Each structure stands twice: as C-alpha cells, then as structure tokens.
Amino acid sequence: MRFAWAVVGYNVLVILWGALVRATGSGAGCGNHWPLCNGQVIPLAPRIDTVIEFTHRMMVSGATFAILGLLAWTFYATVKGSAARVMAVVSTILLFNEAFLGALLVKLGYVTGNQSVGRVVLLSIHLSNTLILLAALTVTAVVLGTGQMWSSLRNGRNSIIVLFGILATLIVGVSGSLAALGDTLFPSTSLSAAMAQDFATGSPWLLRVRWVHPASAVLAGAFVIWLVAKAWTTRRIPALWVVGLLAFQFGLGLLDMLLLAPVWMQIIHLLGADLYWVAIVMMATGWVWPASPARQAI
Q1: Which residue pairs, CB below 8 angstroms and at least 24 apart, start in 31-39?
Q2: Cα separation of 284 and 61, whole Å?
Q3: Model confidence band, residue 242 (pLDDT cutoffs 50, 70, 90)
Q4: What residue intervals traverse the membrane (predicted)?
Q5: What angle (nearest 5°) sits at the alpha carbon of residue 90, between those of residues 110 and 18?
Q6: Contact in structure between 182 and 195 (CB atoms under 8 Å)
Q7: Do residues 134 and 277 lie in contact, with contact meaning Cβ atoms separated by under 8 Å?
Q8: What share of the chain has pLDDT > 70, as a percent?
Q9: pLDDT one-digit tens code per residue, 87-126
C-alpha cells in the first residue's frame, strides 16, 4: 500500500513539472519530435527549455514504470474480483492515454505561444485525463488498504451525488489550468489591467473566459461543502482534510490573482489543487466503497 501512495505522490510531482513546462514556455524544448528530443535520444548541448521539457519526459517515463509496477504488484497481492485490480488496470489505460495526448500536443505544435482553439480543446482533454489518472491511482491506493471487492461498490443516489461532486471539481481543475495558460500567454502589468482584460471586447477569448475558473470554484466549493456535511458522521477525518484544503485553495487562488500569477505561485496553487483533488477522491471512495467493520475498527 505504501508503494501505491508513493506512486500517487510521484505523479503529483510529474503534474507539477508539466505545469512548469507550460508556465515557462518550454513545451517546444524538444521541437515537434516525440519520443525523441530534437531528433536525439538524449539531447546534446541543450537549451534551458530543452532541459525542462526533456526532464518532464523522463519523469513521465519513470511514472510509466511505477504504474506498471503497481499493476503487477496489485495482481500479485490481491485476489480475483478485487477493486484494486480493476482500478490498477484503469490507471494503466489512462497512463497510456496520457502519453498519447501529450505526444499529440507536441506533434501538432500546441505548445508555447500557440493560442488556437484546437490547443485549448486538446489541452482540456489532456488535463482531464491527468486528473482522472491521479484519481484512479488514489482509489487504487485506498482500496488496496481496505481490501474491497469490486462487487461491494455502492450503486444508487449517493454514488450519483458523489460523481457530480467529482465532476464539478474536475471542471474547476481544468478551468484553472486554462486560466493559468491565459496568464502565461497574456501577462498583465497590474491587477486592474488584468481585470480589465477579462471584460474587454478586444481581449483574446482565452482571457474573456478566465472568470469561469473562480465562478466554477465557488459553485463547486459550495457543493463539496454539502457533500462534506453528508459524509461528516462516517468520514470525519477525510472530510476535515477536504474542508481545510478547500479553504487553503481559495487563499492560494486569491494570492495568485493579487501577485499576477508568477510561475512559482502557479506551481504552489497547482500543488494545493492536486492535494485537494486527492483528498476529495479519498473521501468519496470511503463513502461509496465503505471499509468492512473489521477494517474500520483497526
């Protein structure tokens, strides 16, 4: 189980480094070559953007081996019908889809200063897959600890409510990454200038939809608080983590806006978002996949 959580943690690092690639405009550091970097297996005399991009690719390679190792270990350590087996397989599928989407972004030139609708659409799909992969790995780690069977998954109204909460949080995450892309492509000199850009008719459309992120965050946050209230009696510790990280995220978001989204602040804000995402997935998993009484007593 510790290895599973280590894989979750490592994938958070991969996500953060990927954000660094975007924030520093290093997405074209290896040209439009994939899996090679500027036509080379290991780039010689690389520029700084090449180092950043190539490091991200190497980290993704490490994540690939880690997730494949988790898949093998899960099948070795669990029985047929285990929920962990199902989620480990799902994680592996999402991993390869993640690599495919990342390669597509590079090959199509949807990096650095590209402002096309195609980039936004593909990037949104890529970011959604990233968060779902992190969620799948988190669920794998949780159910490895509880030994739950896939057949014990609760179906019904509660599961649907939880699904809506997860989807709402996913939308916030994707809209936040698109807002960060707008901050990177169109930096502002002051807070007032940034707010004026959001509502100016002549502004790039990526800036004019930047308001979607804070608006969706407020709505999703209210929904999550309602979920926390419903889960409070049975999932108090995870619920406390969710509430604490939610408040922390709102604080980071406000600070990010006031500081005009410097790269280091974007990374910290994303780290908070990833931790919040993991916490809410843990809470949701415990709700729809409750541990057996024997496990709960431990």
Answers
A1: 32/106, 32/107, 32/109, 33/106, 34/102, 34/103, 34/106, 34/107, 35/103
A2: 30
A3: very high
A4: 58-79, 86-106, 126-147, 159-181, 211-228, 240-261, 267-289
A5: 30
A6: no
A7: yes
A8: 95
A9: 999 999 999 999 999 999 998 989 888 888 899 999 999 9
Question: What is the reported pTM?
Answer: 0.90
The residue assigned the tokens 């108090």 is: 236
- Check whether the bond before 290 is cis (ω within 30° of 0): no
Confidence of residue 202 (pLDDT cuts 50, 70, 90): confident
Calpha distance 171→114 (Å, rounded):
22
Portion of the chain with pLDDT greater than 90, in percent: 54
Closest residue by Cα to residue 188 from 285, 100, 257: 257
**Closest alpha carbon to 47 in 69, 25, 65, 64:** 25
Interacting residues of 91 by C-beta distance below 8 A, sequence separation 6+: 67, 70, 71, 133, 136, 137, 140
Average pLDDT over residues 22-28: 89
Which structure tokens are listed for 73? Answer: 């270990």
Token pair recorded at residue 287: 């709700």
Token pair recorded at residue 133: 């992969």
Longest dimension (CA), the chain: 62
Paired strand residues for 71: none
